Amino acid sequence: MKVLIVDDEVIIRTGLSTVINWQELGFELLAPAVSAEEAIARIPVERPNIVLTDIRMTGKTGLELAAEAKKLLPDTEIIILTGYDDFSYTQQAIREGVSDYLLKTSPPQDIIKAAMQAKQRLLNRWATLKQGHIQQSAFRDNLLEQLVQEDNLDKQSLTQIPQLLPKLNPDNQSFQVFIIAAAGWGEDTIYANSLHFAVQNMVNELLNGETLLRKDYILLVLSQERTEIELQKIKLEFERISRKLKCKLFIAAGSRVNKLGGLRASYSEASYVFTFKWFADREGLVTYEDIKDNVGGRTISTQEEEEQLISILKTGNVVELRMWVNETIRTLLSDPAATPSSFRAYVNSILISGHRWIERVRAMQALEGEEPLPARLLQPSDDITARPEETLFKHLQSLTDKYQELAAGERVSYIKRAMAYIGDHLDNNLTLQQVAKHVHLNPNHFSEVFKRETGLTYIEFVTRERMRRAMELLSQSPMKISDVARRVGYEDVKYFSQLFKKVSGKTPSEYRTNN
């Protein structure tokens, strides 16, 4: 807090500057002024908070200085120091907004007391003003959020729009919601926040609208007098901001609406467009019209993809796994019909396939007392949008780690290895001879030992596993029944349906409906 001493007598200026330790009291003492005229010239530049001045000086008086200072900086505290105990001076001082009136003969502690009281008055005013600004800012932000999230505002809220959101003139003929994300100043939170703050400032300067700064984006509600907003001009302004701040911008635009009550629909569209931000590392302006016809890409992984993945998971080769993940994600994101929901569904289908495989391995080892592994599917909290390759890789790496852990334990017997092999090849016309060859046994001997160990013949076991797999597919995926039949090794759908009903008591359609 700055203090300016004004007196034409050098002894007074020096005494007030040296007798009182202003710095210790929390003040910054400015160089004293020798006249009211000098003080008036310096006040706009140095902006003192407290002015201690004599009344009678060469040139303008201290009371005239007080009047000028209040015009220049209305919040300034003025303390008069005078050798005249005159009631008329006191009255005029009050009229000029003087805070305190002291005689020059007053002891230093009285002057200190007057300065500290002036300081406290200033702090109290600032706190009140700050609290008012905070409350008004909170009301303003809340009102803007209400406009884009609620259909009908109450009358009281509507009356506050001209004051709190002056750029949103209800008489304008066109409004549009934009959601803006910026990147390029570094991944650290402090840099990201600074960048979004800078973008918000430029948007406020260049575009006629109200903005709201959020953690990861800026909300902009644009207001135009003309019915048609020239989107190309808006795009050019965003490109200008991008060049100026040396950053990348992604701008999601909702549709134009002709009244404030339609902002919720525009915001809903912009929010949906914003979910496409990470598709193919998009940047620039993307409108709802650009993506509204996207029907979604594939949602289920193919049998060949699942077999390839399981083969890689078995090897434990993380380099090969990462290459597979990167290629899979690249293919998904390059699909022009893809949507965030179809992308997430497809990735979850991959994770389900991996989870079913690891559970089969565990089952073949007959691990007693172990709880089933929960399927690690994508959750809303998973950061699949920012780094989809890394998220999927970590999920799959946990499966290959689990497999290596199982393989490092008790060695699986040849019957268990045969059961695992059958589980991995249910879609094929798998014969007993093929399985026996896989575990290096004579088919007749294998058949006898297999029945003794499992309690089932080879055909009974294969049929049971196929039906179990079919039940999983029917309950966990939208796959056609004919595709399910082929996935578990049956080309004849009618025969598959009859066999499925014999085992489960229900047709495939009934089972899916009830599960």
Automatic annotation (TrEMBL):
Domain Response regulatory: 2-119
InterPro entries with a match to the protein in the record: CheY-like_superfamily, Homeodomain-like_sf, HTH_AraC, HTH_AraC-typ_CS, Sig_transdc_resp-reg_receiver, Tscrpt_reg_AraC-type_HTH
PROSITE patterns given in the database record: HTH_ARAC_FAMILY_1 (PS00041), HTH_ARAC_FAMILY_2 (PS01124), RESPONSE_REGULATORY (PS50110)
A biological process term (GO) from this entry: phosphorelay signal transduction system
Record carries keyword Transmembrane helix: no
Keywords: DNA-binding, Phosphoprotein, Transcription, Transcription regulation
Modified positions (4-aspartylphosphate) in chain numbering: 54
CDD domains: REC_YesN-like
GO MF annotations in UniProt: DNA-binding transcription factor activity; sequence-specific DNA binding
Upper classification of the organism: Bacteria, Bacillati, Bacillota, Bacilli, Bacillales
Superkingdom, natural source: Bacteria
PANTHER family, alphabetized: ARAC-FAMILY TRANSCRIPTIONAL REGULATOR, HTH-TYPE TRANSCRIPTIONAL REGULATOR EXSA
Domain annotation HTH araC/xylS-type: ranges: 416-514
Record carries keyword Transcription regulation: yes
Species of the source: Cohnella cholangitidis
Entries under Gene3D superfamilies matching the protein: 3.40.50.2300, Homeodomain-like
The name this protein goes by in its record: AraC family transcriptional regulator
